[in-house]
């Protein structure tokens, strides 16, 4: 029994100690809660002094005004625009694809990509069998013409002789008439031979022979297989897909010409518009673009072509504009960042983006009254540009808003409400 009593006494001592320690802890907690309640009451009283109960508008203290910035409402025109991708392209009205007029082997090349050429300048020479055939036809036509001319001369001599004899009664009238008929036939044959010669001469021109070369060939009669090809217009050699000794076929596909020559003093800017923006595009609308080589320069032109349909592969609509390129800064196939301006817009109220307070889908700003009061007003936003955003409803020119410190005021009112 004595041992049991001793055990319970040893257990009772810690419980007493715990009870003694709990009392001061509870006292300290009560003091802290009291201080917190007094602080909250003090802050609530301070906020109550800033809210005018009559109109519910916020009144800021002098120290609080120093933490915010107030600006008047600005008027700004927001243009309606959208961006897309594009590229610099060759003006196909000022360029041409050159194909081999005859099959043969290239024996001479006189220009390289990037060279400036003039209209009529020699580009390359082909050794073509068709050139030899054309020269042979010309030789035959020339011989026929010369023979016909000789026949005409002979018929004229005979006709004059028979005319004189008929006058002197030394020849019959029938013989004179026969001589006249022979002269007429010879003249007709001469005209036909001249036409055939002209056709052969034109064929030589088609194989690239110049008039000077044709005249020289007419005198010498020396055959050559060379068929020269000349530049049909002045410009820059943009593409060359042939080398010395290479065999070329007649014509070719449109995407694989022997030469591509174009005048790059004027180029196209081709833009590819998404289906969602197709309804906004019109001929004559303003188009601006930038290229990577000139990041600080904005090129401007106007749309002069809109494709009749959507490309089935890319699902984009091609629009195009022409622009002068006299300085040569725009190179074909350059990537371009394109902006199409669909409307320049009219001046409307605008506020800085930092002044707007968003609450879900609603947008609000703090409006400063003439009596230096501040009230929260809901607004309807529109387009944005740089650091400004359009206000469609809720603000009027001449009003003032808080542009810096709006979140400070918003949190202060939130703290008051909680």
Helix and strand topology:
Blueprint: H1 2-50, E1 58-59, H2 62-65, E2 69-72, E3 74-77, E4 80-90, E5 95-98, E6 104-109, E7 116-117, E8 122-127, H3 129-167, H4 173-206, H5 211-220, E9 226-230, E10 235-240, E11 247-248, E12 259-262, E13 266-274, E14 286-291, E15 294-310, E16 316-324, E17 335-343, E18 347-352, E19 357-359, E20 362-368, E21 373-385, E22 388-393, E23 400-404, H6 406-417
Antiparallel strand pairs: 1-21, 2-23, 3-18, 4-13, 4-17, 5-12, 6-8, 6-11, 7-10, 8-9, 10-12, 13-16, 14-15, 14-17, 15-16, 18-22, 19-20, 20-21, 20-23, 21-22
Helix pairs in contact: 3-4
What's the gist of this structure?
The chain is of the alpha+beta class. It contains six helices and 23 strands. The chain has helices spanning 2-50, 62-65, 129-167, 173-206, 211-220, 406-417, and strands at 58-59, 69-72, 74-77, 80-90, 95-98, 104-109, 116-117, 122-127, 226-230, 235-240, 247-248, 259-262, 266-274, 286-291, 294-310, 316-324, 335-343, 347-352, 357-359, 362-368, 373-385, 388-393, 400-404.
Structural features:
418 residues; alpha+beta
Tell me about this structure.
The chain is α+β, with helices and mostly antiparallel strands. The chain contains 6 helices and 23 strands. Strands 1, 2, 3, 18, 19, 20, 21, 22 and 23 form a 9-stranded antiparallel sheet that branches. A 6-stranded antiparallel β-barrel has the order 4-13-16-15-14-17. A 4-stranded antiparallel sheet has the order 5-12-10-7, with no helix packed on it. Helix 3 runs antiparallel to helix 4. The radius of gyration is 48 Å and the shape is rod-shaped. The N terminus is likely disordered.
